[in-house]
Amino acid sequence: MVQGTLEWGWRYAMVDPSAYRIDYAINPHMDPAVQPDPARARDQWETLRGTLVGLGATVEVIPALPDAPDMVYAMNLGLVALRPEWTGPGRRSVLLSHMRYPQRRIETPAARAWFEGQGFAPSYVGRDGIGAHFEAGDAFPFRGDLVVGHGPRTDELALKHLADDLGVQVRGLRIVHPGMYHLDLAFCPLDDDHALVCPSAFDDESATALLDLVPQPVILSEEEALGSWCANSVVVGRTVVMPDCPRRVRNWLDALGFDVVLVEVSEFHLGGGSIRCLTNPLDLTVGRDLDVLSGGLVVAPGTAAA
What we know:
Blueprint: E1 11-15, H1 38-54, E2 58-62, E3 78-82, E4 92-96, H2 107-117, E5 121-124, E6 126-127, E7 130-131, E8 139-142, E9 145-150, H3 157-166, E10 170-174, E11 187-189, E12 194-197, H4 204-213, E13 216-219, H5 222-228, E14 234-236, E15 239-242, H6 247-255, E16 259-262, H7 266-269, E17 280-281, E18 293-294
Parallel strand pairs: 1-2, 4-5, 9-10, 10-18, 12-13, 15-16
Antiparallel strand pairs: 1-17, 3-4, 6-7, 8-9, 11-12, 14-15
């Protein structure tokens, strides 16, 4: 069964892994007593980059910041938004993350400098510990909606800021599972009709809303999502680049006409991230009028949440 492809996923940013280590524990996967092997981590990172390039994607490399060991998880630096209705430099924009944990806020100035150097105009939801927290691993476009997870890392208040800043409406999902603290650990768009979804990551209302949004979800169990990290994958055309793939999920993807390429990134699992966390798509487009839904609360751009 061959269907369409995502409009995005052909251009990525990755952060050089030379500063990657575990200095602290800000998620359940991290333990400073268990350090990644630097040489093996470098080899895994290079293999991932080479795989993406071999599939036809472009990969830009952001220099490492020596004092920012988590910066290697490039997905959380910011949400790129190409705005088709705009002209001029502002069409290429990035909404920079406002990290919940202060250990990671050192990344933002360096990320801003890199994005500005690439021609992306920066904006913020909050900064320097003031204002709503937003981390870009919680946001994906899907079927014209901007789907945003909130709870562990992103504040619900950030949804309104996203709607106002980007001029779109946002569909919010409440994340309740501590081990799937970002949306990208439980949700992976495959094309306009299919996505990997782990309902266990969300409260009941949000799980139902997400399953209603995806016409044909590939549903992951909690064990599959946490054991294989398979939702934290990237899609290039009709190829899914995954860290691991349970047999049942592989059968579904085969039936849907997707190719699966496995790339081991186990050293980065020690820090709480996988393939999607290591990559940030630079070709996302926003700008359509969408519905904002957050736990049953409807909010539109320019309005206040009740």
